[in-house]
Amino acid sequence: MRGKLIVIEGTDGSGKATQSGKMAARLAAEGFTVRKVDYPNYQSQSSALVKMYLNGEFGERPEDVNAYAASAFYAVDRIASYKKEWEEFYLNGGIVIADRYTTSNMIHQAAKIKDKAEKERYLEWLGDFEFTKCGLPVPDKVFFLAMPPAVSRELMRGRENKAGNVKDIHEQDSDYLSYCFANACDIAATFGWHRVDCTDSGQIKTIEQIHEEIYQELHRMIGRA
Ligand SMILES: Cc1cn([C@H]2C[C@H](O)[C@@H](COP(=O)(O)OP(=O)(O)O)O2)c(=O)[nH]c1=O
């Protein structure tokens, strides 16, 4: 019996790593068979092209590599990780909590395409490529951590990113973060993601508040262990 794939998604600096780690630990403590994965999978050689892209080796701006090509880099990394690390676990009923997934291409790569019809074509291509053709599982639930760019810029200031402390080409581009956020809000509504507002009247919510909101919604779906 197939398990469940839960994705914690959001723009850079929205708290995905904290929330996905906390959720996986809580579900494990409750007796669920759970595993956390995160993308890009920097520990694996399969992320080589993603690293080259984020280091600016193909161009210093995100748009220097088009949405289709960059998406393929990330998709290849995901396929390698799925096959090696969690396919069997998931097909045998395990719950997988993913910090980013195909949904990150939907946010960060689709943001490069301004024309609405072209963006729709890209999104259709992406779903067909990653899920239908490459066989990656479709998420059962996507939580979108809606952290306004002004707040995430503050949270990211001085913080190390997952790949080391040098800012990658996405993080260096402040306008790109804003496009990604606006795009993510539209996509979350269109694709039925569960939006979790991380601020309330301009004030950032606590890690516990955000965690509890995700936890309650998740329990409605997976029940009790
Ligand atoms: C997983 C994934 C990430 N991305 C982007 C989002 C991020 O801007 C960038 C690096 O991801 P990540 O390492 O999670 O960001 P951080 O630097 O905050 O630790 O890659 C995609 O465009 N597509 C994808 O499929």
From TrEMBL:
UniProt xrefs under Gene3D superfamilies: P-loop containing nucleotide triphosphate hydrolases
Lineage, broadest ranks: Bacteria, Bacillati, Bacillota, Negativicutes, Selenomonadales
Protein name: Thymidylate kinase
Organism: Sporomusa sphaeroides DSM 2875
GO terms for MF: dTMP kinase activity
One Pfam short name: Thymidylate_kin
Keywords, comma-separated and alphabetical: ATP-binding, Kinase, Nucleotide-binding, Transferase
Similarity comment text for this entry: Belongs to the thymidylate kinase family.
Ribonucleoprotein keyword on record: no
Transmembrane feature ranges: none
Entry annotated with the keyword Kinase: yes
Domain Thymidylate kinase-like: 8-197
